[in-house]
Design brief:
about 525 residues; alpha/beta; eight-stranded mixed β-sheet; seven-stranded mixed β-sheet; 15 helices; about 35% helix
């Protein structure tokens, strides 16, 4: 993991591999952002001019490297774009700082230490820079760097070192003795380490990550962080009547699991329940996915990874709220024992569901977990899932949808997501779409109208939420797994989408800001 330090050194005296500064688009050209004054001085006040000569524009995420002058102790200066200069008296946007820091950290892969002299006038700014740098420095290398007997050792070592993430982020101008700055840094470390843990889980190949092994990871983390963990295996699921989990998982040699993680605080007055879809691999089952649609389906447990990370982060932060996480884990595979289209499952709630499409499996495992979570009567429930391709069609690859049985709660979740830099959009649950799930055989079918499919899935889940409980559904199918080139602090592969939203929701709940 990349280390974070609040450095007492100035930009001119820091000894590191590189120094990161911010630049922005001004009305009359490039502007050097606050924090880089000493660097600009070392360039005789001409840093902006030099960068313009090199083609820098100040656009968000743009990275320009240049040799450092003799007045600095670092060999390289890395200028990263922050976008437009803010209006007078306004600060740089926190998300712009995150993305800039992330872009710089990615550009410094293989380096041991870099100083970040970006604008950190407030503790919130410092926290944003820290988050961006630590997330941007992420690399999934668990399956790389194995011994190649044909490659020279020196070549192998150089290749592997170049892939390693930036080892240390030194935050400059962050007032290390100030309590607010120190708390912001500590929060950033806790949250980003758990996001990166979620990313690791999402990126782990499905031959190594399956329900039982995921449950083992959760159990080990629970012991480390004082979280009570309960794992229901196949026998317990059969005894409890968890027909959704069992129906989805019965085609695989890896049996399903329902994992409960309970973080409690002795002074907590509210309880927040988080439910995550954990399909460790989704082949589609008997309704098999076509070629080209299943290569990344190891990411179908991203919701469970996000819930797991959020509960651990809440514990590490010592939040004054009870947070319970429910990981609905199964592997959806075709076999002679798999659920067939036309089968009817009796869910944990007692309702029966006619399975019309075995590739609409996430809602089945979530339904059981939502009912079980509702039994404990939390103040609110949020489920997170890579649930529908329809949501990707509606909102694209970077935005998740927010549905809810409570308009005020939906608004709060949406605003929180936007606040922490996670793009989201409030979506409706039109009552007229419910009729499409009527079944002549069972209480409800797992499929409805094709148009508005993401909303239909939300309506299905709503059927399994306890009466009187505020509930929100986050469909993260778009942003959970990034297949394109990295940008900002977003890597290729698992992203850890929604973790920051869930953690901030827990913080707000602890503070009593959600009513």
């Amino acid at each position: 993991m990349t280390a974070l330090t609040l450095s007492t050194s100035g930009a001119a005296t820091l000894r590191a591999d590189a120094l990161v500064v911010g630049i922005a688009k001004g009305a009359k050209g490039l502007v050097v952002a606050p924090g880089a004054e000493a660097v600009d001085k070392a360039f005789d006040g001409k840093l902006a001019t030099v960068l313009e000569t090199l083609g820098a524009s100040g656009a968000e995420g743009e990275v320009t490297k240049l040799p450092a002058p003799s007045g600095l102790k670092v060999p390289v200066v890395v200028a990263v774009g922050l976008g437009q200069v803010p209006a007078k008296d306004d600060a740089y946007d926190a998300e712009a700082l995150r993305r800039a820091a992330g872009s710089a950290a990615r550009a410094l892969k293989g380096s041991k230490k870099a100083g970040f002299a970006l604008p950190t006038e407030s503790a919130e700014d410092a926290g944003a820079v820290a988050e961006g740098a630590l997330l941007g420095a992420y690399a999934f290398t668990a399956y790389q760097g194995g011994e190649n007997k044909l490659a020279p050792k020196a070549a192998k070592s150089a290749r592997n070192d170049a892939k390693l993430p930036l080892a240390e982020v030194a935050l400059l101008g962050a007032k290390p003795r100030d309590k607010a700055f120190k708390a912001a840094a500590e929060r950033a470390v806790a949250v980003t380490e758990e996001i990166n843990r979620a990313r690791d889980l999402i990126n782990t190949p499905p031959n190594d990550l399956y329900p039982e092994s995921f449950a083992a990871v959760a159990t080990a983390a629970g012991k480390e962080h004082g979280i009570k963990v309960q794992v229901l295996d196949e026998k317990a699921l059969v005894k409890g009547g968890y027909g959704g989990l069992l129906g989805v998982g019965q085609g695989s040699t890896h049996g399903p699991r329902l994992v409960k993680l309970a973080y409690t605080h002795p002074k907590a007055e509210k309880t927040l329940a988080l439910v995550g879809k954990g399909i460790t691999y989704d082949s589609g089952g008997i309704s098999l996915k076509p070629a080209g649609h299943n290569e990344t389906m190891k990411c179908d447990m991203s919701g469970a990874a996000a819930v797991f990370a959020a509960v651990v982060a809440a514990s590490r932060l010592g939040l004054q709220v009870n947070v319970t996480g429910w990981l609905a884990l199964a592997e959806n595979m075709p076999s002679g024992n798999a659920t067939r289209p036309g089968d009817v499952l009796r869910m944990y709630s007692g309702k029966t569901v006619e399975v019309l499409n075995t590739d609409a499996e996430g809602r089945l495992v979530l339904a059981d977990a939502l009912t079980r979570a509702s039994e404990e009567k939390p103040d609110a429930i949020v489920d997170v899932a890579t649930l529908t391709g329809a949501m990707v069609l509606a909102l694209g690859n970077r935005t998740f949808g927010v549905m809810s049985n409570d308009d005020a709660f939906r608004t709060s979740v949406h605003e929180i997501a936007e606040e922490v830099g996670e793009a989201s959009w409030p979506m409706p649950l039109p009552a007229d779409l419910r009729k499409g799930m009527d079944s002549p055989t069972a209480d409800i079918a797992n499929m409805g109208e094709r148009m508005g499919g993401g909303l239909v899935a939300g309506l299905f889940l709503q059927e399994f939420v306890g009466e009187g409980i505020a509930w929100a559904h986050l469909d993260i199918a778009g942003p959970a797994f990034h297949e394109g080139a990295p940008y900002g602090y977003t890597p290729k592969g698992g992203t850890g989408s929604s973790v920051r939203t869930l953690v901030r929701l827990a913080e707000r709940t602890a503070a009593g800001d959600l009513g």
